Amino acid sequence: MVKPPANNKSLLPGLLVLALCVLMTALSRGAGETFSVFLLPLSGHFDWERASVASIYSVYMVCIGFGSLLAGMTFDRFGARFNYLCGSLILAVTYYFVDSLTQLWQFYLTLGVGGGLGASMIGLVPTQSLVSRWYHKRLSTALSVGYASQGLGTLALVPLVQLFIERAGWQQAYTYICWIFAFVFVVMLVLPWTKIEAGSADNPRKVHKGKSVGGPGLREAISTRAFWAFFGIFAATAVGIFGISLQSVAYLIDQGYSDLEAAFAFGAVGVLSFVGMFITGVAAEYWPKHLVASFSYTLSLLGIAALALLQLHTLSVLLIIYVLGVGLSSGARGPIITTLMAEIFAGRGLASIYGAANIGQGLGAATGAFVTGLLYDYTNNYNAGFLFCAFWLLFGLALFWFVPEIRQAATSTLESGKVDRA
Questions:
Q1: Claim: this prediction has a pTM higher than 0.85
Q2: Between the CA of residue 148 and those of 151, 299, 388, what are the distances in Å?
């Protein structure tokens, strides 16, 4: 018998929780990515080398990775309310003190460590965990919306902060960001967290008396092959994507494109990234997830190949292939990975397991950005960097196919969804 469609009243709580997660993830990622528009003002104000200022962002990315583990552990132990309150407070305090800093190490400690830990507490880890409690049949789609909100936050906050800098200076701009998170902290105090944390009544990942039950804890998970495969996918994919994205603007300028054209191409990749995340999440509802992931990796590799071929001829079609390939695939594996993890590791330790696996993404992003720059310094071209990034993307793709637990979950979740929708 076909089940009757759910009424709007039953859908509303889940949609509101998803909206909350989207907003917090957007603020988390968007605030961090505003560093790109602070790069030149900080370099000019303190007369620091560009690489020194950029290293603040590297510290931030590493702390995002390790902060994800902390965010997962606190979520499992204390709940979402604790995460969102602590994270927004850390970010408000961090941005409050930035305008009084004078030394590079102080920026490492505030924007790097404080910014990374705060963003982790309110970012993808609590989003993944809350959304998985409220969505079951459409989990991949819901998670793709959460992931896509990272791009939305960047698109919204980066131009806004650039406007703050132009109107009031970089110090005051950081103060404005502080006020945003102070307001968020106040809002978090009054939300109905018992209802938010409960999950939907028909979801197998809902909580009992405020806590998730059953399933493996973090210690059990890290002893499994599946956990390290997910860690490896996060790390390898981040190496390939971040290694390319950091160098892409400079590379395009070297090939004869203007600063504006290179920046426009980079911006187009960012716009397409959250479109790609959403499309990939929806596709994973209808086709085996390892096949959808394979198509996404193929797009990434085609984009890198097109970028490399621009050295031979600056054909517009090659630039379009790069933008489409890398844009539609950047971040697109995330919803697939987290959906599979929600199935394999459902239970009391899910948020901690998410967080621990996300360390791989932080380490991979920092490694990719550093190594591709190093390879350019040694070879004076980008070819070795292209090959390096392509290799790690192929490695991530291989893990989807050759780890039995992932292959099985990639197809079993699809079959389960077909049964539920029958």
A1: no
A2: 6, 18, 27
